Amino acid sequence: MALLVTSHFMLNLDSAIIEVALPAIKNGLHFSFSGLSWVANSYILAFGGFLLLGGRLGDVFGGRRVFTWGLLAFGCASLLGGVASSPGAVVIARAAQGLAAAAISPTALSLLVSLYPDGTPQERAKRHKALGTLGAIAAAGGTAGYFLGGLLTEFIGWKATFLINVPAAAVAAYFACRVLPPDRALAGRKRIGVFSAATASIGMTLLVYAFVGAEPSHLFTARTCAVLVLSLLLLFLVVIRQRRSADPLFPLHILRIPQIRGANMVAALINMSMGPVIFFLSLYIQQVLDYSPLAAGLAILPIVAMVSLSSRLTGTLLTRFGVRTVTVGGLTLFGAGLVWLGGISGQAYWAEVLGPEALIGFGGGFVFVTFTVSGTVGLDPHDTGAASGLLTTAQKVGSALGLALLSTVTARVGDEHTLTAGYGAAMLAAAVPVALAVVVSLRWLPGGTRR
User: Fold this and answer.
1) Integer Cα distance of 124 and 436 in angstroms
2) Average pLDDT of every residue of the chain
3) Which of 161, 199, 345, 348 has the CA that lies 20 to 30 A from 379?
4) How far, in Å, are 87, 151, 175, 302, 365 from residue 309 at the CA level?
5) Global pTM?
């Protein structure tokens, strides 16, 4: 468990650590402003585009094998980024990191779920506790990345933000071979349709690109709409082929389970709010309140601290109240924090930001655990990797879509009024997908501890 949780910590750490180093990378390699965005976007595209395939690889070839090779690939990609001397090499390294992460993240979640079976109430309580720990540690990775990125960039250089992953991935791969249970033989599951895998990956990549590559002030341009339609057509083609396949890339039958559908919709909707809100809040604290980057990282800490706290409490609450009640309660707290934060006016952090941050983090921690529990429970062991990949994909696509939509809100309101008004409008708009998530939870998530 410690190994699998640490892998999620490492991936979240890497995402945050690179964001802090972007200005130094720009100056060191003479990136253009538009080119610099691809240091982040190439990772997001590869990660989001190949998550479905990455999750299924663990089901087909074995979780320990895929997890170990994913760690080694992540370390090699990080080494490439650390020795890069041109903008193109850095972008390629980030894309390779994203491909490796697409195998590591869902496979780690699938392995963690398989270690804690969903049988007796005692076993279920252990699973809930394990998933709560995963949420708490993963959230801590993002915070640690902001601080570690600042320290490494300032005292060693931006290359250290890549190179630090090399020994971490190597050590994790070594222990993966030593402590993870051996892979079971999966008779008849040794092939993946090349056409379906390639089409699904291209379709998912285009879907993420439609939102990541959009201009904030002109979201639904002809180009964006064309890319979006093409991605949906490719994904529809994959669904048609998978329905006729005896051994599909993705088992469509799991989507017939109501709570699986509900969990993925909740995951997408809350990530439309959480990731973009932290992004805009960081900008607001630096640009409007005039905090330094390190001080802004400290100012975001209450969100992560409250996520960690409520994640650890969720297991006990799930056993007592059930998934639906805990999810709706967490979403209510989360939405209340967003509405409160929508009233920012440029005054002191302690008066306008700290309280909403506490509500957002505390409510979000509950929801992150509950949709993970609902999205992985009651499945055949051979399908847990695919389900984990689907759940992670829903989060990444939701985050990309939310950032695109809220960026448009910020740009338009900010142009008409002030920068502060733009950020406040984005916080209020972020409450809309949270409200939709409440409706989804009431419709599809199980409503009691007995179920």
Assistant:
1) 28
2) 84
3) 199
4) 40, 26, 28, 10, 8
5) 0.81
